[in-house]
């Protein structure tokens, strides 16, 4: 799992050390050498778990998809962003979950209300 790019769709096999990484930054963190550039790259699709090769010298728009499952693995990277929020307010809670205290609740008579006259309902 890559901590640099949140929406990784394919892993790359580094041509220099033959190890699998989700991004070039992950390779740089664990390796003592730079990522070697190659004309042919080996990818592993994260959706169908199959491996495929792509020629990077002749890379075209249709090469952005996995040849096995048509998953688009060349997408704009989503990186983790720092966020500041107001403490105490949960942003996940929508308007429909919050109770409006201005509305008066109707006092309906039920069978379980001991003070209500429900003799006409009891047979």
Automatic annotation (TrEMBL):
This is CHY-type domain-containing protein. The lineage of its organism: Eukaryota, Fungi, Fungi incertae sedis, Mucoromycota, Mortierellomycotina. Residues 1-71 form the CHY-type domain. Keywords: Metal-binding, Zinc, Zinc-finger. Pfam families: zf-CHY. InterPro entries: Mito_Tim_assembly_helper (IPR052604), Znf_CHY (IPR008913), Znf_CHY_sf (IPR037274).
